[in-house]
Structure formats: structure tokens, C-alpha cells
Amino acid sequence: MSDLRKLLEERKFQEVLDLTRKSTKSEELFFRLSAFMALGKLKEAIECIENNRVTLQDNLPWLMRLHIELLCLDGRFDEAFDEVKYYENLPYDSQESEEVLKSLPKIIREYETSKSHLAMEKEEIIKGLASKSSDDVLASLDALRDKDLTPYYIFLQKILTSFPKQAIRSFALLLLVQRAVNKTFKFNNMGEIIDVNPSLLKPPFVDDDFEKVVKRMQEEYKDPSITQNAISLLSSYLIYIYPKTVDLNDDTLVDALYHLSCEYLQIDTSIPSKEIGERVRLIGDILSDF
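-> C-alpha cells emitted (290 positions)
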């Protein structure tokens, strides 16, 4: 059980689904439902509930509310009202169950009322995703962070391959990575079209090497303003080239970021070698397009 919880915490949702494929215990089914919901798979979550209704009735108040809310999120309001009738015919042995049952029709009506507003919001998000403005696209990507991404795949795919700025293409990919979307997309990575499956990609900034290079900058640069600027430049650089990576332990990279940071802060420095100078120019050229 602790293994499933750990996998959820590590956002390894597909592994949770694989391990609980034949589960019949309510605790394991809870983790399975959590994984479905994290992946935005509403229909699969609803099917899991309806196929394991008796087992999940160990926690009836939670089950009723979750089932009805999932149906509403999927726009299946008539089915939600039918399920309320089903739950009304069950025997209840707790005040909490009765109170939740009484609240279900109101919950459905509230979802129905908000549906028109959600539809308008969806139109605005799509409009932003289709925009040529970086600000509009970024605003729509931000609005999608807590929504089911499935209806927007076609628009996200267009951004991944066709939006002029590499940074925006990378931000769109990072949204899919954050949600562990198990689907293959085409991605324009600095002019090279590659296939990517977001669920298989490791997010940037999560490994020990990034923390180590930040600590190294703090120790070697001494000046906090230079260090903070260098960290910001490195973060932007890693986002720009993502999902490609660089060796964060490379001395040349650390030296180049120092001189580039000084350049941005208008601090005069003397670049010690041609190799570092070329690295400064390369990173600087990339970030000028960020």
C-alpha cells in the first residue's frame, strides 16, 4: 500500500494503474481512482466506480459524492440524477451518508448552472492557444493547469510544432509533462521535429545535479546578484533546449554562466578562454530568442 502511495507522490500514475489493474481491495481501488483523476481520465474513473461499487461502499459518503461529481465533470447530468436514485435505495447507517445524499441534487444543479460559463471559458482558452501572441498562449497554458487536457490536444500539438518561439513550444510541452500525458506528440526542438511522449520525460530542475550546480554557483560566484541572475539564465536555457539536456557538472558551463550573468548586469569581466567565450555566445544567442 505504501508503494502505491509513493508512486502517486512521484506522479507515476500509469504505474499505479498497471499495479492495480486486477485489484479488488477498496484501499487499492482508491489509489487507482486517484491515478485516473490525476491523468484526467474521467470516463475510466467512473467505470472503475461502477464496476466496484459494492467494494467501494465501505466509504459510502465519499463514494456517492465522488461518483456524482465525476459524472457532472463529464457533463452526464441525467446519469448523475439516475445515480442519486440508486443511492437513495441503499440502506444508510450514518448521519453523514444521509446528509451527503440530500446534498447530491444541489451539487448536480450547481454543475449544470456553471456549464455555460465553462463552455465560454473553453472558447477563450482555445482562442488564446490559437493566438500568435506569446502572452495570450501563455495565459491559456496557465488556465489549463487544472483542466482535462484531452479536448485541447489538437491545439497544443499545433503549438508544439508551429509556434515561432521555442520557449513557448517548450512551455506547452512542460504542461503535458507535468500532467504525465501518455500520448505521442510531434515537437519542434530548435528546428528538429522529434517524437515525444510526455509521460516518459523527466521534468527539468528535479535532479540532484541542478541543486549541486546552484550550490556551486553560490560558493564560486560570491556575489548574490550575479548568482541569482546566473540561476535564472540557466533555468531559461534548460527550458529552451528541453527535452535535451546539458552536463550541469561541466566547468565551462559554470564559467560561461558567470560571464554571461555579468554581461547582463553590465559588469566588466575578462573571458579567460576561447572555449568559454564560445559557450557564452551560444547560450546568449539562445536566450536572446527566449
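The beta strands are 185-189, 192-196.
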